[in-house]
Amino acid sequence: MSASLVSIVEVGPRDGFQPIGEFIPTALKALLIDMLYDAGIRRMEATAFVSPRAVPQMADAPQLLAHCATKPGLDIQVLVPSQRQAERALAADARHLAFVLSVSPKHNQSNVLRTPQESVEDFRAIVALLPPDAKIRLNLATSFDCPFDGPVDPAATLNLVEALAKVSAEAEYCLCDTTGRVTPDRVGDLFRSAKERFPQLRHWAFHGHDTYGLGVANALAAFNAGVSVIDSSFGGLGGCPFAPGATGNVATEDLIWTFAKMGVATGIDLSRLLEAADKAATLPGACVGGRVRDALNAQTRREEMA
Amino acid sequence: MSASLVSIVEVGPRDGFQPIGEFIPTALKALLIDMLYDAGIRRMEATAFVSPRAVPQMADAPQLLAHCATKPGLDIQVLVPSQRQAERALAADARHLAFVLSVSPKHNQSNVLRTPQESVEDFRAIVALLPPDAKIRLNLATSFDCPFDGPVDPAATLNLVEALAKVSAEAEYCLCDTTGRVTPDRVGDLFRSAKERFPQLRHWAFHGHDTYGLGVANALAAFNAGVSVIDSSFGGLGGCPFAPGATGNVATEDLIWTFAKMGVATGIDLSRLLEAADKAATLPGACVGGRVRDALNAQTRREEMA
Q1: Predicted TM-score of the model (pTM)
Q2: Does B30 score more than 60 pLDDT?
Q3: Confidence of residue B2 (pLDDT cuts 50, 70, 90)
Q4: Which residue of A has its CA nearest to B289?
Q5: Which residues of A touch B225 (CB under 8 A)?
Q6: Where in the sequence is the domain holding A148, given as residue range(s)?
Q7: DSSP secondary structure string, A5-54?
Q8: Which of B240, B245, B258 is opposite residue A183, by nearest beta carbon?
Q9: Lesser CB count within 10 Å: N end or C end of chain A?
Q10: Which chain B residue has the Cα nearest residue A219?
């Protein structure tokens, strides 16, 4: 099954900026967000409400949220790891929260100091806080593979979805390939199983990393399983600056180039997006990824040399 | 449909070395071939019989062929673009020829100075030359997309296959994505159409480039359409040294890493293959590609730092 359009969630301003050690000035973040918006991005994980001590890069979350709120039609999603941060985000007028928890107990412990079951209770508390005009997404990290424990049993992911589904059937369920180590067959299988088992859940999304070069292949597998909301990061930002080669999120430009070739509409202008990605690539400490940007830049150079 | 094993054709020694301007000493080529063989590669496009004036890098084809012939169980495929070169290859004891022609008339003209129909006649002449113990593959360049004319009509590819099928039903038909611009949906569709239209052809293969990051995705699409012979190049060699970013063949290590995760046997040892790829990456003028090598090297560095 495939749809004729796909909704890209640009996560570069959050997942892409977060691992960059050197603080990106708020005005520069805002400029990059403007460029993304001007390229046609209409949904964005714009920042995270997290401890500024733990993640100084995200300390300007309220200012960025206020900046984004000036843009008509932009669906602004902000990451929150706890009830307390959800309260902070809502107080700053966030109306689309992304709550993150991990299927893998070890990863959840490392990431948010909770068991997955404790995180389900946090989710329950956050849902209770939501004003009527707010939306929530669930980012289920390590839905397929864990950096500590390797492949994750699909049953574990489905069981966690079941516990969460009892709390909210309205949330968007985003299954995340945190390590980039899942293969397209498993992505398709898990989404098909999940959609069959939870007919009451109508909002699914996929979030993948391109570490081993399977970012686009995995996104297409999700798309072919009927998932039309896909996360990606401009410039393929999101890698670890201390481990060259461990590149980050699948690149937005790789996805929209591919979907355009397939006749699937994204509403995003590739050349304007590439301008934003080229600019992001100049950020000190940025680890860029993706392939389409280099390929098209090389093509331009060839044409200029011809 | 999927098979439980896949046969990798390592094309690095031909497609990978060919665009490298600086001559790679024959002994070094032989050493890299040895490393590939020791990693478990059992089918290889080892060299090309082409005009040494036009492609000096391939001038040592007879010596390399003789070197490969010492390796038990190695299926040694050599590229030939014309009847005359096929005669040279057979005289040097080649027993597996790969004849290249292009679906796109403009590309065929540029590559071998023939119309596709003239190349079909060349193929007929070559088939007539083959001793009983020889095999032949057809590399149908630009089966999906042409660097000059863009997307290729599937009907053009299928019609060329039809003309060739009248000459030989025993040949292996390799549909090649020369530009890296095809998407997985089109790869799957074309192979399914071809297999349905030509039930008499039993040997199919796919050859793809990773220029836009779809190399593995396209190979998997071919595999899922029942194609179990896939070309790839160690280190992702095969790019154009004058156009950085225009990377080459899909990397063998990316494919075998992915197939291993999927439980599909390739018979190839990843860590030994990576040694060969690491060595190839040091060749002066080599443009390497792929993602798995960098990701695993980064992982090793992380572990060493931990």
Answers
A1: 0.92
A2: yes
A3: very low
A4: A291
A5: none
A6: 7-305
A7: B-EEEE-IIIIITTT-SSPPPHHHHHHHHHHHHHTT--EEEEEE---TTT
A8: B258
A9: C
A10: B217
